[in-house]
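Re: beginner question about structure tokens

> Can someone show what the tokenized structure looks like for a real chain? I only ever see the sequence side.

Sure, here's an example I had lying around. Input first:
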Amino acid sequence: MWFPRLTGCLMLPVMAGDFDDRELMSRYSNGDAGAFETLYARHKGPLYRYYLRQGCNEAIAAELFQDVWMKLIRARRNYRPTARFTTYMYQIAHNCLIDHYRRAGRSVDAFADGAIEVEDMPGTDCDGPERRAESLQQGERIRAALAALPDEQREAFVLREEGGLSLADIAAATGVAAETAKSRLRYAVSKLRRMLADE
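And the corresponding structure tokens:
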């Protein structure tokens, strides 16, 4: 027996995870709380690490992290998907960081307390103490190299690596020309390679 194809007639439940970020934010602006929960789950780790990699201690990173989400919540009614959601979110994150430093009257380095814990890295049963110590040392070397970069270069690198932003998105999030973002990222990668190779 032949059955006609029912294109568009079959109603399946749509899960929030099936949508891209812009659609989720649009759905949230129309009252879909589940869409916000999905956005939060997708971006909470990279956003928090963005602040840690910028040299903020854990308390300041947590405070700024919350500020960004509160601003997203407040701005939901005015959200227009003209750029990628991550560009929009990291532009807010960048502005929160700048505002924080202006209020404090100090440089980025003043907030790095040097006591950021290296995250526990999952390992296999064959990872012994030597391997874990080596991983911890490597993590500390990378953190130290990132901290040694100029602020603008570090931010471009972190937005690319943690946020997954393109050069155009980095430029939009930080309010600079695309060539400036490209230059900052290129210098950051070059300096990191050199610092890590020296060690």
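Each token stands for a local structural state, so reading them left to right follows the chain. Residues 33-53 form the longest helix (21 residues).
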